[in-house]
């Protein structure tokens, strides 16, 4: 009707048309009181009673004010004589310019996305833009915001059409007509009427929730072809797949990493946190971000995947619970607690579960099945994994890929952006929880977990031989990095399955029949998978995690008469558990594991396995200062590996022999062993072996004080370790390079590298490494003359060595003695050296040669400062001290004060 008013001159309006016109004006708020509506009726000599009482009480007339207050006449009073028919086309406004609402809360974040979409819509060639994303991602709010921001760009107006209530695509044109408040006529079909309406206008049409109406997509193409000034902005969970469509995948809000929180100021800048704080203060006005609640706020936002709807629903819960309680509730009950959204939201958006059910309900049955099954994956999957684990019955891999593509098009899965590897897909955690809920109701859940575990067990077995070096090492390490969460899930399932056999095995102990071997298959699989993963854990420095899993699988019951495959699996797992215990400095536990492994491998006549365990036992013996035993077992391992022509194993044995030679002052033999191992590793293109030998050669050169050449070797080894992602050896190399720089007088650089090293060692649980780094950092501070800092670091080192074993305390006491000399506390130094010597004699250890050289130089200095009687007396006092007393005095804050006697020394106390 509005088009008729605008385009037809001198036409007389019928009574129904007048009524419709007044309703339109009321809906657009161009009239605001009932009196103004009555004025319009009076112009046409129509009474107020044209509208029934029910019509006055129904929107939009019910929105008009009833009082006389603020009454504004639309036209002059009607004349007393009968009015002639009037033409309103020039007097009344034409069709509305927009129906885009203003918001009472700001749009949080999205600045970059808004700019991109706005820029696209301003391009003449872009006519159709689709905002894609899962339910709750904020597509509707974003579209409305953009439309309102761009009102000035569209003279013909901008109109928002809500389609969520429609289920039949054929009604989309009618919904648009209704929004535009254009009256349908019998003369023109609905589509033709819309084409005519938009044909000469520059208009923006916003179509919301199009995903269930994809059958109307051809109509949009038809409309765009007929109206050159029309642009359409669509929100949908599914791609429209029509010509000219420009897709914008709306990402979740920007998230902080809960593991690495920035300052409060920086944390509050993250989009997800900003939204949470904004909504939290609406229900709890005094809520602020603090040091105490920041970790919980960041974790809540992360667990909710940065979904705006989920964050808003969660923040609303702060009205009745604390942030900490909310985080606990969201741990595994997200869908249950994310309810009670604003009443102004559509019903489907008033809880996260309803939003997800809406999306799920749009899927075909085969898509629902695949969606449910994909919930089994953690942190994503590849196409190969999806087909192997979740493949639909009777469906080819190509068809499975098509189904996955459909879920991708419908925004229920996301493709990760990394193009370096095979395409990888992921499901947001909120969606995954929904999928797992659905899966739990189905009988196939257990079978699916079994397929998932078997797939990743086989993947690890394929990866293991490629992790020891060579060109395939880095790609396979990166692939396992991506699958780390899936590997944990698979190993946990195998472990649970194996543990479920325990009762059966206990009963079998009292049965004359041997235990069914099939019952022990899960135990063998768990042992094999954990043992195979040990190479990955070793390379990446995940020692604590690896030991956690290996300890659990080693403790699994195996029955009285285990089969050969099961014994082989257990022997290998014990070997790898020993290796990881060694890397964390727990040598006694490492030896227990390795000796049991060696016994099993000898019983199996596993020559390669025997060689591997002997080499590992050699490592343990070296660090327990049992050098004769170390040489014996490593040489036996080397002989077996030469017999087997095992080049990588030979290189490994040469590396260990070099370590033994360097620690027993046979530096030239060490250099020869390392160099031979390096040559083999280079021939094999084994980057791990190359880096290990380069680092070990550099360490020997430090001992002979060739710092320039040592530094070059470390600088060559470091990028190799970084490429391999070998965090433990990255840390060691940084520490040794710090020693080089310290001896070259580059103290600031030395400090920086040593502290970086210590950060890594603490992350990976390398207690020996942390202790060594504290020693080295203390040495740097001592060289800088920062005695208080040096003392503090040396005492930390002392505490670390006390935890690791008494035999290493002597090195810490040597450090403290050196500090005493630097502070000219010569008698104190003599006492500490005496205690150190006493401890070494008791433990049967000695200093490494370069430390022995330093010690001898310090003794010369002491003798130059003390006469023989004073030196002997101080030494005797130290030798008489019991360890606890000596350590207590070393820690005393007054120990390095200027007093000449230790507390209690005059009494000769030794307690």
Annotation keywords:
911 residues, mainly alpha, Rossmann fold, 5-stranded parallel beta sheet, 3-stranded antiparallel beta sheet, 43 helices, 8 strands, 4% strand, disordered N terminus, disordered C terminus
Give an account of the 3D structure.
The chain is mostly helical and 911 residues long. Among the domains are: 94 residues, no CATH class; 139 residues, P-loop containing nucleotide triphosphate hydrolases (Rossmann fold, 3-Layer(aba) Sandwich), CATH 3.40.50; 90 residues; 80 residues, Winged helix-like DNA-binding domain superfamily/Winged helix DNA-binding domain (Arc Repressor Mutant, subunit A), CATH 1.10.10; 163 residues, Alpha Horseshoe (Serine Threonine Protein Phosphatase 5, Tetratricopeptide repeat), CATH 1.25.40. Helix content is 61%, strand content 4%. It has 43 helices and 8 strands. The strands form 2 sheets. Strands 2-3-4-1-5 form a 5-stranded parallel beta sheet, sandwiched between helices. Strands 6-8-7 form a 3-stranded antiparallel beta sheet. Strand 7 and strand 8 form a beta hairpin. The N terminus and C terminus are likely disordered.
Give the N-to-C terminal Cα separation.
106 Å
CATH architecture of the domain at 481-643: Alpha Horseshoe
Extended strand count: 8
Gross geometry: elongated
CATH class of the domain at 481-643: Mainly Alpha
Which structural class should the secondary elements be placed in?
A: mainly alpha
Which radius of gyration do the C-alpha atoms yield?
39 Å
- Strand order of the biggest β-sheet: 2-3-4-1-5
Which regions are unreliable across 5 or more consecutive residues at pLDDT < 50? 1-11, 67-95, 341-345, 896-911
**Helix content bin:** 55-70%
What quaternary form is this? single chain
- Compute the number of helices: 43
CATH superfamily of the domain at 481-643: Tetratricopeptide repeat domain
User: Could you tell me the mean pLDDT?
Assistant: 83
Do you know the CATH topology of the domain at 481-643? Serine Threonine Protein Phosphatase 5, Tetratricopeptide repeat
Report the β-strand fraction as a percent range: under 5%
Strand count, sense and barrel status of the largest sheet are: 5 strands, parallel
